[in-house]
Write a structure and sequence with these properties.
Helix content is 18%, strand content 38%. The protein has helices spanning 4-7, 92-111, 139-151, 163-168; strands at 2-3, 13-22, 25-28, 30-31, 45-48, 54-62, 69-73, 85-90, 115-122, 125-131, 156-162, 186-192, 196-199, 214-221, 227-233. Bound molecules: zinc ion (ZN).
Length: 235
């Protein structure tokens, strides 16, 4: 399966052919739908059939292999036959908000020292858990630091580095819970020029300015070595 979002996160739609369709799982030969992973929710959207009818996609998840993407249709949908040509269209407004928040969490990671032990992105909000003792994290200071990086409008771009290069630079891996998938010879990293470099397979905006103003809404104490920093867009 060709994962269009891997090389272009801004593709909202693509032409594809159905490989298989059973209750709860439609597979295509290529797709713009991002499957849930790395703290980012799966895309929603629709598949448009040659006769103009539409199949609503309620979620996208990973299948058995690294490039296996499962489109989850609305229960009761009439399933297309294998080989049917479809147009796959994501809910772009929602995806763009997820891309903005996802990129913002990279900035949070750059601003707060400490290993990341978990994270979650949802529509309009996001959070990261840091392996930090009872240090005083200042909500206002983190908000200001991130908004400064957003205003500076740094370029954001994915690129590939070799497993060897990653092994030589262990400081690149700040996320303890999500180990980058090694063993394929190369790892996809996200480069926010001059700010952050992290292995990441998610979807991101092209420049930090596109994120728009944010604020740290809450810093929670979730245990002895866990500080949870919550972020939301400023409306
Ligand atoms: Zn990312």
């Amino acid at each position: 399966m060709e994962l269009v979002f891997r090389h272009d996160a801004y593709e909202r739609a693509c032409e594809a052919a159905v490989e298989s369709a059973v209750e709860g799982a439609i597979r295509l030969d290529r797709t713009v739908f991002y499957p849930m992973g790395g703290g980012q929710p799966g895309d929603i959207g629709q598949l448009i059939l040659p006769d103009g009818s539409r199949i609503e996609i309620l979620d996208t998840v990973k299948g058995a292999t690294i490039d296996d993407v499962v489109h989850v249709p609305k229960p009761g949908s009439v399933l297309p036959a294998a080989g049917t040509k479809v147009r796959a269209e994501i809910d772009w407004d929602r995806r763009h908000r997820l891309m903005r928040m996802h990129t913002c969490l990279h900035l949070l990671c750059a601003v707060v020292p400490g290993e990341v032990t978990g994270g979650q992105i949802s529509d309009g909000r996001g959070r990261l858990d840091f392996n930090l003792p009872d240090t005083r994290l200042d909500k206002e200071a983190i908000t200001a630091a991130i908004n400064r990086l957003i205003e500076e409008d740094h370029p954001v771009s994915p690129r590939w580095i070799s497993d060897e290069e990653l092994t030589k630079n262990p400081e690149l891996v700040r996320t303890m819970s999500v180990k980058p998938p090694m063993g394929q010879g190369q790892v996809r990293v996200l480069d926010i020029e001059g700010v952050d470099l992290q292995p990441c397979g998610g979807t991101h905006v092209r420049r930090t300015g596109e994120i728009g103003p944010i604020e740290v809404t809450k810093i929670e104490n979730k245990g002895k070595m866990n500080r949870r920093v919550n972020i939301a867009f400023r409306i």
